[in-house]
Amino acid sequence: MKKVLFTIATQDYVDKAKQLFSSVYHKSGWTGDYLIFHDGIRNEDLNWFKSRDIFTHKIKSMIKSPVKTQWNDSIWLKLSIFDPYLKRWEKALYLDSDMIVRYSLDDLDKYNGLWAASDADSKILHQFNHGLNKTDTEQILISRLKKKFNIMKTALNSGMFWFDTKIIDKGIISRLLRYYDDYHEIIFSPDQALYNLVFYGKWKKLPKVYNVLVPKLYSSQNHHHVNGINIHLLVYPKPWVAKKEFYEEWKANIDRADDIDLRKRITGNKMSLVDYIPAVIYNKLLYLIYGWERSYLIAVPKLNRLLGKFGIVIRKILFINTNRKKVEKTR
């Protein structure tokens, strides 16, 4: 099966893309191709990727923000990731460049169709301005949205997509443009809001460990509890700016990015049950009991104390059972 892992980058995100590819190469054992979709990257920087047999492809954003917003150019460029260029591969894995990959991605091969992880436990409604301070126009648009979609359905997070490239057609582009024209006045994050409408009822949910969301209001003292196959750094300020939580790991990855050699693949680190179960429990309890951003302000200290003891018990049980199996195999 021909597959490709790709991200997008503008000039200011070159280092972030290098870090992502480095973590994929050194930790996941990815056996497919690597690709960067880009716009505005200098030739000397593109040559870094090309010299490592990483495919490069220039794309343009279909939509330009009519006004200056908090969203950078990469966000708007992300609306063009379902490009026909990908059809030279059978399957494609898109990852945001603010991710750190820690474990093998091989298990994705068993999933067919379009897959993504949920956006914490938020709903489609939360991708739009639905608060009390809506203008009359925004109220009308929300009402129109409710008539067309069940906005209480779980929302996908657009930081990761795993998909069969045969889903790519002109319909994706036409729907993106139509929904942008209809709802751009009430969307929060443009790419995520629009992809939730474009792929409404068409995507399947991956386990959360494939896209562990570290939110904006995260407490730095708790970051060592976070684990998953892909760590999605939504936290602000970003690690490469603040140089605190996750920075050491991020910096270690980028420091060995020059060692990427796709002619010599490295065996990936498969996530064991010892790591998987506490990670799943930690994330599910966090999202389920306390909700999204609020959970990281209120719940984390309490949950850490609970899982500090509970997680140790789980790990000991799994470790004992794993060792027993190893001993039995050697007999």
Topology:
Layout: E1 3-9, H1 14-28, E2 33-38, H2 43-50, E3 55-58, H3 73-77, E4 91-95, E5 99-101, E6 114-116, E7 118-123, H4 136-148, E8 154-156, E9 160-164, H5 170-183, H6 190-198, E10 204-205, E11 212-214, E12 230-233, H7 239-242, H8 247-255, H9 273-290, H10 293-330
Notes on the structure:
With 331 residues, the chain is an alpha/beta fold. The chain has two domains: 3-210 and 246-259, Spore Coat Polysaccharide Biosynthesis Protein SpsA, Chain A (Alpha-Beta Complex), CATH 3.90.550; 273-330, no CATH class. It is 40% helix and 15% strand. Helix 1 (14-28) packs across helix 8, helix 5 (170-183) crosses helix 6 and helix 9 runs antiparallel to helix 10. Residues 292-302 and 319-331 have low confidence and may be disordered.
